[in-house]
Amino acid sequence: MKRVVVGHSSEVTERRSRIVHVDGVEIAIFKLTGGKLRAIENLCPHKNGKLSEGIVCDHHVFCPLHDWKINLNDGLVQEPDEGCVRTYSVEVEEATGNIILLVEQGSSLAS
Ligand code: FES
Known about the structure:
The chain is mainly beta. It has one domain: Rieske Iron-sulfur Protein (3-layer Sandwich). The chain has a six-stranded antiparallel sheet with strand order 1-9-8-4-3-2, with no helix packed on it. The chain starts with a strand and ends in an 8-residue tail after the last strand. The relative contact order is 0.27. It binds FE2/S2 (inorganic) cluster (FES). FE2/S2 (inorganic) cluster binds next to loops.
């Protein structure tokens, strides 16, 4: 795993998200109430809705297209629907406030 800086914590509002691209994959970084970050692929497994535009409630996001509920901790779609969204490890660097995304070796940062 390597650590990639993808922005600054101040750029993400609570219960909102910011989109970054890593190796052509669009990733939505959400800030939960209380400030914790979660990162998931910005693609609903139902019909490719942009999860970054969904409503965040606690540690779930509701897809803006058909309201599927997705757990931001593990990417699992909640019943009665099913599926899974890819998740990424993300943290805030204490000293700088930078958002660090942990990606597989060999990946590179796009924007
Ligand atoms: S595209 Fe997300 S619920 Fe349909």
